[in-house]
Amino acid sequence: MKEIDLTSGSIFKKLIKFSLPMIVGNFLQQIYNLADTLIVGKYIGANALASVGSVYTLMTFITSIIIGLCMGSGAFFSLDYGAKNHKRLKEDIVLSFIFILSVSAIISIVIYPCMGIILSILQTPSTLMALTKEYVTVIFSGIIFIFLYNFFAYLLRSIGKPYVPLVFLGISSVLNIILDIWFVVSLNKGVFGAGFATVISQGVAGIGLLIYSIIKVPIVRIQKEKVDLSFKRFREIVINDLATSVQQSVMNFGILMIQGLVNSFGEVIMASFAAAVKIDTLAYMPSQEFGNAYSLFISQNYGAKKSDRIKNGTKISFIVSAIFCLVVSAIIFIFAESLMGIFVESFEKEIIIEGAKYLRIEGAMYVGIGILFLWYGYFRGVNKPLISLILTIISLGTRVVLSYALAPTTPLGVIAIWLSIPIGWILADVVGYFYYRKNKL
């Protein structure tokens, strides 16, 4: 597949062409959990749905650590590629692979002994503890596959090959649906079967992309010439990757804290939140991936020292993202109940009503998070990941503080949690604009 060079040609066309496979790829990645949620909710019941939904936020947090590290390295890869520095690119690939593989292995070793404590902190109800542990036991065995897929996906995207990860993810997503139906519906394996189907599918995507990269991407292969592995460069990669990873994981840690507060409101709110979050994630996912594509656009042109192209690309990206988010907000607001009905049986009226409330309150302000994803991408692309971290802390900190201050003690109740989310987005957007003006190229 032909590489896409983001440093020349029509900015709008290149951004759309580059972001589309990333958007479709993220959509397929969401299918892993969507398939679990849909099949578990329809064939096992509301308790199983609540259990899987609760673990989803935990798994997202753990996964975000690895994805953040890979994303940080991807920015380095893209800078090297834009600067045509292939020797440095080879060195960065090797050093990043060693570092992120080590972190993934440590997470895999540590997570299981701490699982009981983590589920208790999340206020998992005792009636759901057995189901939740059963699901989480198998789902976390796929961490190494998550590393492999994301590392090589970000590498291939950084060198202009966004379609390859999409192909492997498409195959594994279809496989996941087939295995979900087989294990849960045909073999009656419950939540364990749903988790096992996901891990097998993740393995196909991760190992498949590893094999493809070794065969088709010469710079990945181990060759006879010596690769300089300097400690100074390793330190730079670690600092950059950790900053990006902390930004991603802080974002999801805040969501994890919200999950604990949501759990305290009972099983109906848990189930409605589990289903609504899936819809929510799919709704603003295209703007998130557009922000990631924009980040790679920024980093390639930053490496190539094309500041005018960066300025023009920034203007175009903000207009495109804002229009998209406004359209999606309107759709979510109008069809909230119908969308909830995809994941919840029609007789579960209370769950549908509560989920629709969440979607209408938060979904009305998707433009806030669409802009925030672009700020994340911009500062990551110009090698200032700490600013992205600051924006995340502002956004999530606002959400957590307002939720815990208002939800348990005021008549707003759980509505306070839903309102705090867009408030956090808007505050972070304002600060992001301030930093942009201050650090403008």
UniProtKB/TrEMBL annotation:
What Gene Ontology terms describe what this protein does at the molecular function level? Answer: antiporter activity; xenobiotic transmembrane transporter activity
Q: Which UniProt keywords apply?
A: Antiport, Cell membrane, Ion transport, Membrane, Transmembrane, Transmembrane helix, Transport
Q: Which CDD domains does this one have?
A: MATE_yoeA_like
Membrane topology type, per the record?
A: Multi-pass membrane protein
Compartmental location:
Cell membrane
Residues of the signal sequence? none
Q: What is its main location?
A: membrane
**Record InterPro entries:** MATE_fam, MATE_MdtK, MdtK-like
Question: Per the record, what is one GO cellular component?
Answer: plasma membrane
GO terms for biological process, alphabetical: monoatomic ion transport
Q: Name one Pfam family in it.
A: MatE
TM ranges are: 55-81, 93-123, 135-156, 163-185, 191-215, 316-343, 363-379, 386-406, 412-436
What's its job?
Multidrug efflux pump.
Q: Which family does it belong to?
A: Belongs to the multi antimicrobial extrusion (MATE) (TC 2.A.66.1) family.
Q: Which PANTHER family match?
A: FMN_FAD EXPORTER YEEO-RELATED, MULTIDRUG RESISTANCE PROTEIN NORM-RELATED
Protein's UniProt name: Probable multidrug resistance protein NorM
